[in-house]
């Protein structure tokens, strides 16, 4: 066969190029440029093989005619013959290495050749149907011509026996092209870390504690971890769990309910059983009747029908309204109302008043509450001005006694006074204390303490405060309360300035004597309970080296040279109670 130049190949049509490719048993391609490249590569490789064969034929007679000379050269140690022998040996080693690589990866080569070769070539070499119909095509190998095995066996027998011969094209192609060809066979990496399998929680603990060799391969690891954690669930429990799931239309749609119920476990039930299981979880009678009336054969069709039915019959979940109790409908003080049960004598002792928090009576029978209600009711002849912020004046102590039937004048209504029991006028106030601001036309600031059955008492504010009268103790929460008390006491004193200085010096001496006694007691107690600290010298060894001694029983501790315990150098100041030597000093006998 003659070699066509590239200019002539470019002038040929696509059909003629396909004829040339079929003539040389090369893969076809719809692209004319790719067909031309395939033919040119085939012609170049064929020329190289022809030159190699011609050289072998030329050297063959010479070697056959002079075997003794070769033996003599080998015995004599001719460097040229040894170098040529080593080259041949290295070339054969390279061919064997390529052959081993092709035996390990025979499928891409055979598949690409079987996919793109003509039908006549496939039938003549007997390719398996699985290889002919495979859709995977390697774009790099599609342009590389593949030589037929030269073992004298058809390709089908070579495929069945697992023996493949190295293609001559792979052995003769340049290094860069061979590297790119072999690189295409390496599986690509997706660029994500989640492609690897990671064990977590109990699986990780099991993997670390297991002593058997289970990580030899993925199959052994998969079988071991499946046998360890796989548990068989009884069929009746799974079926009961699936049957107990009810459809709550207010929280989930029918599609969500169906998927949650079907994925509980792979029960491998028939289609009609799955449909009946889904219908049994519907509580709405109308929707359940519509679902039963559907004539379907598969779960998918049933879900499609129920989607339309549920979308039309959708409803919102509404909670029932509770009737509010009318608290104003009955009087809380009325014990005879129908809502209140009669209190028995036995429960009367255990009842607690809601007003005064005392046991033995109820709120309706509380004496304090009745007293408060009676005090809040205004009388006909009394004035209510005493309960307000304004204080009424006090009239003269001597006045005429008005008759009970006589009406009081407006001037008398604005005046309150202290009268005896035989008078018709009375004072009604809510609190036990009040303030007197005017007596006989003179202004005063006096506190009045009211007590039943006793006459009114007038108390000066300087003698006792209202808080002390009511709460029996002073409630001075002001910031200057201490200063006020001090100034009040200072104003009451009758001592002279010299006497005050003498009293101050005397108090200071007493305080100093008490302070000295406390210091002396603390020193005696500390000396009695104190233990003498251990003393160390510079250079003493313990867990660390005593580098320097400081005052107040302190020492600078550092790492022992070339024996550091921690990664970072240790340098700290410690007291003797936190130090302990390796070996205690032995006392001499």
From TrEMBL:
Protein source organism: Solenopsis invicta
Location of region: Disordered: 50-79, 321-351, 378-413
Compositional bias per record (Low complexity), positions renumbered to this chain: 335-346, 378-409
Protein name: Uncharacterized protein
Compositional bias of kind Basic and acidic residues: 325-334
